[in-house]
Amino acid sequence: MAQQQVDGHEIYYVPSQSKVPVWLAFGLGVMLYGVASWMNSLQTGQHGHEIMMLVGFLIVAIALYKWFAAVIVENHAGLNSSQVKRSYVWGMGWFIFSEVMFFAAFFGALFYIRFFALTWLGGGGEKAITGEYLWPDFSPDWATGAVNPHPQFAGPDGTFAAPSLTNWGAYLPFYNTVILLSSSVTIHVAHTALKEGNRRKLILWLGITIALAFLFMGLQIEEYVQAYRDLGLTMDSGIYGSTFFLLTGFHGFHVALGTFMLIIMLARCLKGHFTKEDHFGFEATAWYWHFVDVVWLALFLFVYVF
Amino acid sequence: MSAVIDAHHDDHDHGPAKGITRWLYTTNHKDIGSMYLWFSFIMFLAGGVMALVIRAELFQPGQSFVDPHFFNQMTTMHGLVMVFGAIMPAFVGLANWMLPMMVGAPDMALPRMNNLSFWILPFASALLISTLFMEGGGPDFGWTLYAPLSTTYGPPSTTFVIFAIHLLGASSIMGAINIIATILNMRAPGMTLMKMPMFVWTWLITAYLLIAVMPVLAGAVTMMLFDIHFGTSFFDAAGGGDPVLFQHIFWFFGHPEVYIMILPAFGIVSHVIPAFSRKKLFGYDSMVYATSSIAFLSFIVWAHHMFTVGMPLAGQLFFMYATMLIAVPTGVKVFNWISTMWQGAMTFETPMLFALAFVFLFTVGGFSGVMLAIAPADYQYHDTYFVVAHFHYVLVSGALFSIFCAVYFWLPKWTGHMYSEALGKVHFWLSFIGVNIAFFPMHFSGLAGMPRRIPDYALQFANFNAWSTVGAFIFGLSQLLFLYVVIQSIRGGQKATAQVWDGAEGLEWTVPSPAPYHTFSTPPQLK
């Protein structure tokens, strides 16, 4: 269907009233109240509001489903002019930038701890006096995870710090890097196929991307199991574990979200959605996937290798 | 679903829906703007009451009115509510109302997300304020949430505060994305970047700052959350972490945040002063570059909030000089505003009075900012009432005055009626006098060494504090007059013309007053 035109201008489609946003806001409020109550109940042992958490999540899920469905229907109905589509493009781009800044906070914490805080606690650098007075015998070693001045934190028995290059054949994070980087290539191949109008190729390579995503998450779970079971590397084992689990954990969460998005895209491709020229839903997902990939690259370098 | 779309074609050029669902389900930027503004005013009153509790306690030395634990909750909540509930939503409300009209767009770029950004706020605020009624009380560690006060020693309700901040942040990020998309994508043909009105420019840069730093705050409170509940040791030196790390991350957010609260104010004043001086804004280009420079500098000055925490000397020097550098672009702005007035045919209606007070009092706050930037001097000022005086001069007589200024300036466009000029002026003078009586003595009590966030004080500070309290009550109560003036203008009064102010320029003055429910369904032709 053609876009509406007045005086040679495309009409910018302004949706009429929608029930979805206010429900989504309500759902978010309920869910987070539930999550906060549940977290507090972990410490007090009192009964929390787990049911609120679930109800809130359901409302959020339904609202998001309805929202995306409405956008897809509008686009199929031809309501979205090229200008409206550009708004979605800007929106996704800036959303990814906000995600970059979220990770930047955790990377910033990692750098500050490694280069300033631990040096000072260990009696080095300009604030060496901290270590001298408080923990004179403490010398931090990031590579082994020996970074806790106080005995209340046991510290891990080992870390996932990278071995010498010749031993990378048995180094799980290296495989994870290869897998995730490959998935960035495969999603690009799928995108190219979509632009060529080659459906079979699109679905094949999108499927491969999803398979790689699951492989990555499986290995990541394996790594966590090893950390907890074999290495004593836990979230409460001191700052090495704190940074390790929050960085890899939030990355893993974003991979899971990205995988979910890829699955939705696969379902839409199977339903025959998207055309050669008009497939921003797919492209946005691909952008997001490249983004989690780049974050992983930074993780691999700064959490594992260096 | 197609029914929804069909319905749209019918109601596009009609007025708003009837009843409460108009506000719940709306996608209209004017409705959403109004909701933002009303919400922010309610939060302003709530935060104001908290401020008056603080001032009542400090009216005289000794514990007289509330217990110290509750006093701490009041200082914390007053800060959080005013920053996240009053000032920021007010500017977003103004952006919603004005940006689409200023750039000649039919609405915000993503209208449904716009409504989501707003409706998150009441739920987030309910979550935040409900902590006051929880076991152990609300947050009592200051709005800066410093660890370990907030992690090891915080009340159980801290968890709720953290999630409230997550929600408020999500709302801000979505609002900012919407604003950037609107400005970059929806300008009328011919409106190049360097032809955009200043309010649009300042909001573009503000939105960029919001998207860059709100996620950092989210990261900071997330680390708090994990330290509290899941045994991580980000802010615990025993486990190799560092409480100072929290301050670094928080202020990496916090300093751009204060510019988020002042850049749109610069934009507003850059509209009002030319309008009432009947001259073009002096130095438009330099205004744009100055705003950009301030935004850039805001990312590299954060540690001036923590000179006394124990930082390497090189760090202190860097942050001191970088901070002082901000005075240069800010000086450019003040110079331009004054030059705009130079030889102008000036009149002094209420918006202009607030704009002039803004320039004057914001500069006072700017000067005390330069004093605080000097690291060796800051050792004396840190955590005293001098700091409180400084940031209330820039946030109350700065940001808040610019919001009043904007409301008086655009109210006739919104309601179609002129407000009562006489009552507006009374409101201005009461606010102006109240603000100065409340906050000017704080410079002195601070320089004499009175610490902030303490419910009691030594006798020598008694006079200054008594004055501050009197001023705070004058200022607080006079805001009820503001409410009255606004309601009066909504209900009736002298009809406003489309132009409203004869010196005002911009697309918003080309549409009738009150502005029709839908403006610029097709982009206007720029001259």
Commentary on this structure:
The complex is a heterodimer of chains A (306) and B (527). A two-stranded antiparallel ribbon of chain A has the order 1-2. The mean pLDDT of chain A is 93. Chain A has helices at 20-44, 50-76, 82-121, 129-134, 172-196, 199-231, 239-270, 280-305, and strands spanning 5-6, 9-10. Chain A folds into 2 domains: 1-80, Orthogonal Bundle (Helix Hairpins); 81-305, Up-down Bundle (Four Helix Bundle (Hemerythrin (Met), subunit A)), CATH 1.20.120. By secondary structure, chain A is an all-alpha fold. Chain A contains 8 helices and 2 strands. Chain B is 67% helix and 0% strand. Chain B has 17 helices and no strands. Chain B is globular, with a radius of gyration of 23 Å. Chain B is mostly helical. In chain B, α5 (111-130) packs antiparallel against α6. At the A-B interface, α1, α2, α3 and α7 of A face α1, α2, α5, α6 and α7 of B.
How is this structure best summarized?
Chain A is mainly alpha-helical.
Topology (SSEs and partners):
The complex is a heterodimer of chains A (306) and B (527).
Chain A: E1 5-6, E2 9-10, H1 20-44, H2 50-76, H3 82-121, H4 129-134, H5 172-196, H6 199-231, H7 239-270, H8 280-305
Antiparallel strand pairs in A: 1-2
Helix pairs in contact in A: 1-2, 3-7, 3-8, 5-6, 5-8, 6-7, 7-8
Chain B: H1 2-11, H2 21-24, H3 29-57, H4 68-103, H5 111-130, H6 158-185, H7 198-229, H8 243-260, H9 263-277, H10 284-297, H11 313-325, H12 327-341, H13 350-373, H14 375-381, H15 385-415, H16 421-447, H17 462-491
